[in-house]
Amino acid sequence: MSMDLNDYTIIKEGEAEILMHAKNEVFFNKTQVNNRDMSIAVLRTFISKRKQEHEALLSKRNKKNGSSSDVEDKPNDCDINIEKSNDQGLEEKPNEDPCTASEEPVKIEGKVRGKLKPPRVLEALSASGLRALRYAREVEGIGQVVALDNDKGAVEACQRNIKFNGSVACSKVESHLADARVYMLTHPKEFDVVDLDPYGSPSVFLDSAVQSVVDGGMLMCTATDMAVLCGGNGEVCYSKYGSYPLRGKYCHEMALRILLACIESHANRYKRYIVPVLSVQMDFYVRVFVRVYTSASAMKNTPLKLSYVYQCIGCDSFHLQPIGRTVSKNTSVRYLPGFAPVVPQECSDCGKKFNMGGPIWSAPIHDQDWVTSILADVKSMKNCYPAYERISAVLTTISEELPNVPLFLSLHNLCATLKCTSPSAVIFRSAVINAGYQISGTHVNPLGLKSNAPMDVIWDIMRCWVKNHPVKAQPADQPGSVILAKEPVLQANFARAVASLSKAQAKKVARFLPNPERHWGPKLRAGRQITSKHISLLGEEAVNGCLNDQDSERDAKRQKIEKSNDVIAES
């Protein structure tokens, strides 16, 4: 297929290059370089961990059976059952080998052999194919990358970009015109990694995605419908994700936890469950990286990982209501409904009512071992990541988050409720630490603070602060007045604590970076005509350039029509 390169712009990101037409025919967003870099970093760590787990499993089975030949010649029932499932996959695609990822000792895809096959990756919504090309060219040890799209123009662009990137891309990346949902359903447990990065909500893809991942494989999922997830349209969020959002300062973290709860819900329908390794809120979207496992017994723990959230409408107090609990007796474990309610009808701090949201994922959203490995890999290969500064800053902040504390407080909001001057973050953190509790920042909000201190302790600290920094009298029915009317039970100690600054803060490591350029955010869906109302998204210069191009095209068409009419009239 011949083409004129003058009609295209060459865009280079990492080691991949793509050809983009001047028209908005295939979706591409420069801002997503952060997303792609983070995904490559996680994928590298996944391949490394996968190899370590496979070697550990081989070693364990060799010790158990006495030799590696016994492992291969005497497969257990699990191996036989999985062989059958792989044979079913081979009937559908005879030219491809089944995926044989081995992750947990009790959950393994395929026979355990000495050599682990390279992981197969599915990019379910590929558009230009840039992400798939970067995976193939930059991630060592990766296997086949399958890029799907339901748009014919996008598939043509992806195939053009594959050829443009040379032999490595041609040998590893294949592009197909297909509905991602149907493709994933017809290829169950075939991919070690499934990457979902849709324009908007991923909810319609989740059911088929959790079935397409091998046992112990990785599901990467992005959601960009933040207005829905953050409480702008609560009823829409409930219809898409099965959770009701609350509009608090923690809404972006709650969005992460709603997405995780939704993925877990879809996985549970197939006796599967998820283990989050990294969950990130960046720019205008949330991105989660989860391992998917199969276990009917482990799936029973799901209610222990989910909670409803009670948010006071008067102050910043929030409380979590776990859905389930367990009771252990000897060696048996019973699963029971959670004790309720965790809050009275009215807030014990200010006397106002509660809004209820959820259910959300209340278990840890990161695996700190993974985060440490990913960050170390990123720092060791900093020249390989175009967005190194941003992703290293985010990973550094995540590495210092308290893992077992869902959601967070905003110090400015606490002070706004009391109408008082704000203590510095160091002073407030010191008071919490001196009271015997833990506190950390959060990657979601530079002003957010995570703490395992209960709300009555937080308000006692603020009452002590107001005693030293008096406020003007407020109406008695205001939440701040009700809170300050009570005497503090805890006498706060504001002396500077050693751990009041994190290691990154102490070393003055940048953790929250500004956007590298203006209009750094979401872009128009592919195929939409650019008009003057899109200046806020694309910038005045870009919009004017596109409008001028459109005017030129219209003038050329008009002249062509006039010439043809003149020819017809003369004849």
UniProtKB/TrEMBL annotation:
Enumerate the Pfam families for this protein: TRM
Q: What GO molecular-function term can you cite, just one?
A: metal ion binding
- The UniProt record lists the keyword Methyltransferase: yes
* Region listing for Disordered, in residue ranges: 57-106, 549-571
| Keywords, sorted A to Z | Metal-binding, Methyltransferase, RNA-binding, S-adenosyl-L-methionine, Transferase, tRNA processing, tRNA-binding, Zinc
Q: Does the keyword Cell wall biogenesis/degradation apply?
A: no
| GO cellular component terms, semicolon-separated | nucleus
GO BP annotations of the record are: tRNA N2-guanine methylation
Q: Where is the composition biased (Basic and acidic residues)?
A: 71-96, 551-565
Task: List its EC numbers.
Answer: 2.1.1.216
UniProt xrefs under PANTHER family: N 2 ,N 2 -DIMETHYLGUANOSINE TRNA METHYLTRANSFERASE, TRNA (GUANINE(26)-N(2))-DIMETHYLTRANSFERASE
Write the protein's name. Answer: tRNA (guanine(26)-N(2))-dimethyltransferase
Species whose genome carries this gene: Gossypium laxum
Q: What is the lineage of its organism?
A: Eukaryota, Viridiplantae, Streptophyta, Embryophyta, Tracheophyta
